[in-house]
Amino acid sequence: MRPTTLVGTAPIPGHAGELRCFHHDGDYTIRVDGIELMSTRVHGSEEQLSELALQRLGPRAAAHLLVSGLGMGFTLARALALASPDTTITVAELVPEVVTWNRELFGTKTNHPLRDPRTRLVVGDVGQTLAAHRDAFDAILLDVDNGPDGLVRPANDSLYSERGIAIARAALRAKGVLAVWSAAPAPAFTHRLRQAGFDVVEHRVRARRTKGPRRTIWIAERRGAAT
Fold first, then answer.
1. Which of 17, 24, 55, 77 ranks highest by number of CB atoms within 10 Å?
2. Residue 5 falls within a domain, yes or no?
3. Cis-peptide into 147, omega within 30 deg
4. CA atoms in the 13 A half-sphere facing the CB of 86
5. Cβ–Cβ under 8 Å, residues 138 and 179
6. What is the CATH number of the domain that holds 124?
7. Is 16 inside any structural domain?
C-alpha cells in the first residue's frame, strides 16, 4: 500500500486548528481536524458551480467574475475554460499557503489557472473584498468553508447572513449572479436570498457528477438596482 504523506500545514485565521495537505498515490487532499475538506480526486460539484453560474449569466462583454476561495483550483479553472478571452476573474483566498500549494503541488491537476492572464489573485478575506467593490462583478462564485453551515471558521458565517448577502448583492452589477456551493441544503439560506432581492434556483448535484454525496448549489440573479 502506498503511504499517505503530509506535505504541508497552514494556520487558519480565526480558527484554533490548521489546514493539513496530504499526498497519496498522485492525488492531494486538504483536511482540518481530521475531516477532508477537498481533494483532487473529487471536484465535479466545484466545476458545476462555475458551469451553472456562467450558464445563468450568459454572454457579457468584458465580464468580471469573483471566485472564492481558491481551494484546489477546480472552480477557477472551469470558469476560465468557459469564459471569453476578455473576461477578468478575481480569485480570493484567505490562506496564503493554499495559494502556494496550488502553484507548487497540485496546479498541474487544473492546468495552473493562477498563471492565466485573465486571473487576478487577492490573498485575504472575501468578505472584505466584497465590501470594497460595489457594483463591480457580473458574477460572484462562493465556495467558502462548507457553505452556510460552516465547519472551519466561524467568521465565514457572516457571508451567509442577511448582511453578508446584502453586501454581495451590492457588489453585483445589474442582473448579476451570485452562485453558492454548499455541502448540504440550507432552507433558511434560500429564504434569505429571496428576501434580499434575488431570483433563486437551487440545484442538487453529485460530488463526482454522476455519483457520490449530493451537494447544493444556489444560482441567484439580482433583481433591480443595487442597494
1. 77
2. no
3. no
4. 5
5. no
6. 3.40.50.150
7. no
Name the 3-class secondary structure at 87.
coil
Whole-model pTM: value is 0.95
Q: Is residue 124 part of a domain?
A: yes
Q: Assess if residue 140 is contained within a domain.
A: yes
Among residues 34, 40, 13, the alpha carbon closest in space to that of 101 is found at 40
Q: Are strands 172-182 and 137-142 parallel, antiparallel or unpaired?
A: parallel
**What mean pLDDT value characterizes the chain?**
94
Domain containing residue 157: 42-222
Closest CA to 143 of 48, 41, 8: 48
Q: In angstroms, rounded to a whole number, what is the distance separating the alpha carbons of residues 88 and 121?
A: 11
21-30, 102-111, 142-151: least confidently modelled range: 142-151
Domains held by the chain: number: 1
Give the model's pLDDT for residue 226: 47
> What does the pLDDT look like over 165-207, one tens digit per residue?
999 999 999 999 999 999 999 999 999 999 999 999 999 999 9
pLDDT winner (highest mean) among 6-15, 126-135, 156-165, 216-225: 126-135
What is residue 216's three-state secondary structure? strand
Whether 65 contacts 216, CB under 8 Å: no
Rounded CA gap, 58 and 60, in Å?
6
